[in-house]
Amino acid sequence: MFKRSLTPEREPTRSAGREPARSRTMRAARQALHVLAVELGTPTDPGTPLFGAVRNRWLRLLPYLIAFLFAVSLLPSGIHVLVADYGMNGALAGALATAQTAPLLLAVTRPLQAWWVIFAADVICALALTGTDGVAGRAWPWPPTVIVGYLVLMLALSLRERRRTLIAVWLMTGAAGILSEPITPEPIAPEHTISTWVLLFVLSGVMLMMGATLRERGDAQRKLLEQETISEAERARRTLLEERTRIARELHDVVAHHMSVITVQADSAPYRINGIPQEAQEEFGAIAATARESLSEMRRLLGVLRSEETERHHEGPEKAPQPGIGQLPKLVEGTVRAGVPVELALPEEPVALEPAVDLSAYRIVQEALANVVRHAPGAQTRVSVTATADGSQLTVLVVNSAPPAPSAPLEPDGTGHGLIGMRERVRLVDGSLDTGPLPDGGFRVAARLPLASPASPSISRPAPPATPTAAPSPSPAPPLSEKDSDST
């Protein structure tokens, strides 16, 4: 009873287990065939020539030249081999040889479509050779000329198509060779232990792998170059933003001084001036309140610009008074101690400068001397600060000669971002900056700054009447060199 009841229960279970396995196998086979058809029917960038993105014109023409040479050489040789060696009809041999070689010209722009034509022609040629008399003792199913043309096509195909497409092409090549075994002509069956389909299958795989490796390596180098270009642009942008932030922090002290003066003058006016009407006192109070509010807004803006690390590590220097051309002798003294001989020439008479102009002149000289220390150590350097004859502009000139022969740059691989800060400071005060090399191998940096900044006129003295701003210099300085340096 127990065995009779057990047997009918197990048999349906086994048959049910076999049925899903067969269905899964069929489903997997259908999916594989679908993927194979999609990969073989979806070319990558059709119509785009190989090496089309290369700038060199001769390299762009190289694939056309190679395809033309192989097509011209393989066409007559293929016809001769099929007619003379295999005994094929001349018209049929010419048609097959043309179909096997002419698409090599198409492979430059559409290698996958060229493969379909050549592969079909090769299969038809193998079938046609089974009916010829000269096939005995010779290569079959792929004659030598067919193998050479097919390998050239594999190279073009590997330089363009995806890896999955290349695998599909390789498998189709092997499948065609395997299917040719049952129809191998009897006379050559005992004479050939290794058919030519195995040779073509192996060589085509090697060619596909080699071409795909070269293509992937070129793609990786191109992406790396693009990434380096993007990184360099991001570094330049970040340097510019950091320099603007630094300028904004420094200008905070300059503007805060004037706003503080306005506040004090407005608050003390009723006590310093007798007989001020009540309306005027209220107006002075409103001016003082507006000045205090402006100071608060400016401090909040400065807090946004200053990062936590800058706040922590540079809190002391940012609260110190901002330097000007009066501190240039001390700056030059430090540069001389660094091993750079520097001569300094300042105006004999004191020049009244706006704080922003004074600070910009100092920072330009500071950066120029830093460039000399980095890239031309030991070079004779001259720094001059002069005012134009009409008293409208301040000219800051830094000239260094060629460095001594034994000396080597301390930073030979500078990023070239050092002039970003100079340009920003010059543009801040509506000035100009010129750079250029000297014939003797030295460098010059010249900046022309207006003595009265049009962007921020002095508040501590009455504003002058509306007149044209600083006139252009009658004798502009020659172009100066752009040193390859980092921003300070």
Automatic annotation (TrEMBL):
Swiss-Prot/TrEMBL catalytic activity: ATP + protein L-histidine = ADP + protein N-phospho-L-histidine
Organism: Streptomyces chattanoogensis
Highest taxon above the source species: Bacteria
Keyword Lipid metabolism part of the UniProt annotation: no
GO cellular component: membrane
Protein name as catalogued: histidine kinase
Residue spans of biased composition, Pro residues class: 462-479
Histidine kinase/HSP90-like ATPase domain mapped to chain residues: 360-452
Enzyme class at the top of the EC tree: transferase
Record-linked CDD domains: HATPase_UhpB-NarQ-NarX-like
Transmembrane segments: 61-84, 90-108, 115-136, 142-159, 166-184, 196-214
Annotated EC: 2.7.13.3
Record GO terms (molecular function): ATP binding; phosphorelay sensor kinase activity; protein dimerization activity
Comp. bias regions, Basic and acidic residues: 1-22, 308-318
UniProt keyword list: ATP-binding, Kinase, Membrane, Nucleotide-binding, Phosphoprotein, Transferase, Transmembrane, Transmembrane helix, Two-component regulatory system
Residue ranges of the region described as Disordered: 1-23, 308-327, 453-488
Domain Signal transduction histidine kinase subgroup 3 dimerisation and phosphoacceptor: 243-308
